[in-house]
Amino acid sequence: MKELIQMAENAPKCPLNEQTRYIAVTDSHVNKRDARDEFACHTGLFFSFMEHIQNLIPKVTGVFYGGDIADLWEARFKDIYKHNVNQRVFSYIRNNVVKILRGNHDRKLDQHLIKIGFTLNDFADAVWIGPNILMMHGDRPFDVFNRGGWLTTVVRWFVKYIWVFLQKLGLDSESPHETSKRPNRIINLKSILKLAVVGLSKHYKKPIVLMVGHFHDAGIETCRGYGALIDLGCWTHKDSVTYADIDDRKIVLMRMYDNGKKEEIGVYHLPNKVDCVDFSVGP
Ligand SMILES: [Mn+2]
Q1: pTM of this prediction?
Q2: Considering its fold, how many domains does the chain have in total?
Q3: How many angstroms does the Cα of residue 273 sit away from the middle of ligand 1?
Q4: What is the pLDDT of residues 8-49, one digit of tens each?
């Protein structure tokens, strides 16, 4: 918890008011356009989505990207970036993004993106969107399999070699992009993050919404009246992509299908200032 509060304390703050409207997306896992590239089928949708957002400007202030933009576990950046279509993806992100959160699959992507026109200021480990929303990738600081060190090395090695081999044999029906799910299922990282929401809300004496990527499983879970955990989903599922539309009053979690059809997954109404209560004394 201490580490999480430290992340929150260090996080840059972006204003959320009547003049702002943000879009949040996450986990596109842009890859080298081979058979394992699950984003490749959505690139057309990505471009029309980004154009749609650009048309909404100045109504939309910008895009927050929840991490794992590219999959550097599976491909080298130069093999990803040599494809023209991926170069266009990164140029759209560069033109629209407010902040990019670092993910476990692309923790060092900033070093590559800075060489193609991004600035260090575009990246963060966590960011505040207004007073109540804290956005981060979601693996840190609780995911012991993604904390770095020897365990992470073993997990990455397993993903890179064994997992793919099991998939080829048809022994595992899961996507390699959902690799984070298996260890998460054992330690149930999402439940830990829900407890973290309670902890953060108590610490800051206001309801905190923790908005994360990483799990690829879009949904809103309220945390015993203390705030909520919002999973932004991903851009690697076969039939649809997910995103959040954020203004100063609410967060709307949306799913968009390849045919452009949209559907609302859920809404979280942000608290008014008058709703804020002192959680330190209990609900
Ligand atoms: Mn991740």
Answers
A1: 0.85
A2: 1
A3: 33
A4: 999 999 999 998 999 999 999 999 999 889 999 999 999 988
